[in-house]
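Appendix B: complex inputs.
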Amino acid sequence: MDSNNYSNKRGTYIPPVILAEGLKKSYGNIAAVDNINFAVQKGEIFGFLGPNGAGKTTTMKMIQCISPRSAGGLRVFDLDPDEYPDIIKHRIGVVPQETNLDPDFTCEGNLLMYARYFDIPKDIAKDRVKELLTFVSLSEKHDVSIEKLSGGMKRRLILARALINKPELLILDEPTIGLDPQARHLIWERLKLLQSQGNTIVLTTHYLDEAARLCDRLVIMDNGKILEEGTPSSLVSKHAGGEIVEVEKNNDVLECIRGMNVPFEETGDTVLISASDAHEIARQLLEKCRPKKMLTRPATLEDVFLKLTGRRLRD
Amino acid sequence: MVNIFSIPRINRRAWHVWRRNLTVFVKTWKVNFFPPFVEAFLYLLAIGVGIGTYVKEIDGVPYVNFIAPAILGIAVMNSAFFECTYGSYVRMYYQKSFDAIIATPLSIEDVIAGELLWGATKSVMYVVIMLGVLTLFGVMAFPTSLFVIPLAFIGGLLFAALAMCFTAITPSIDALNYPSFLFITPMSLFSGTFFPLTILPPIFSYVALALLPLTHIVAVFRMLTLPAFSWTMVFNLTWIVAVTLLLCVIAINLMRRRLIV
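Resulting structure:
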């Protein structure tokens, strides 16, 4: 390693926690991840958004050192996952998409067993398990078997399991999938708390409100490629404007909007107009064509997402 | 693509997987220790005493003494083979345990090595229990019969690895019935277990010695439990060790090929 790249006399350059350059993963002729570049800095929450099959999970698996890359560069903690998988895995915590808790053990048993895989001494592990069960509000369920837990409890336990080795980097693949609002809020809160303690967090999600709420920066992926990168607010203002007018679609309204010379999008029974001054557009529409239903709202990440990845169903 | 003959790198962390399986096993020890206990009784009564009444002896050996080492050999085979086919498949496919474990510093090679060690351990535990029962019937010679215990570990490793090869290529849990019924069941009958292979046309002996691991295990066990030593034990042991090492390497690489994509 060339140390000159990372430090100089004026200060120390801190390499990113994850650095991907031209990262690629192919299965036969199909490129699941196709030449992507990104860097995750220490202490940030970095999101991967994209429809099913976009390549998010494949990217996570390459970072976790459980799926070797086909081409390109990837460094985690400035180490090559192909060469130092055990060192890297010692320093990361993973919340997988699929719930893979061990059904042969209780909540506590699952965490203790996991601690053993990290070579954590038993007495230290016991204390940490207690702390973590409290952290995810599962102390009372410590000796309950996995089958008796609700979906939300299982996800919380998986979060606790991912923290057993005090990871510097936490990777979460769809952390709140299928959870009720209470459980989602609890997980969000905990993730923010972990970030404030200096953890770096990488997550994938379909929930755009989740991404907007949690992520400092995010990328939108589709077909194995990164389409956009930025902060949630910069992506919204760049691609969706400030506000959106939604009007019920009929021929009169369409005629009228075409006459106004503003960009618009038709979806199902609604027409969407993005504008910096939605109220002015709405006023004009109201005067000119008297739509039956109309509303104005702030643009969201969902508008950006649908604009960039299209409305076609993926699977 | 991984070469199936390349030597895998195994870390001592593989024992964590072994510990996991042992912990689960100990939690339900009553259910687990019951079958080998009963099995030894049933075989010995039905075949040893029942058929033995008519057969009396084979090559000058009382029939019940002749089949006793075969009962041990079959136990080595069945306990490791079924553990690393159905047992491992359930952990791999239904419980996703392997996925969970490889997210920790353990590699897939460590996980499979741990599973194989566990399969072999199960063979040892079963053989120890059966050895106790058979000793009560007075059909085991000591101290030579004690060597059966370490050999049960090597034999167990052989069948665990063989099983893991099938687990690595099976499309579903039902398809594991093919090796079980088409390979393991015939092997338990045609490996010089309940009758000497020499009474069949010579081709049977050759095929059994070349392809059926149980033939070698039963031959060695019989020399130890009667006892009746022969220089052929060197050949049997060499065959067992060589095939065990080869199958362990192949099993780990095949599983890597299945799970790491």
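The two ends of chain B are 9 Å apart (CA to CA).
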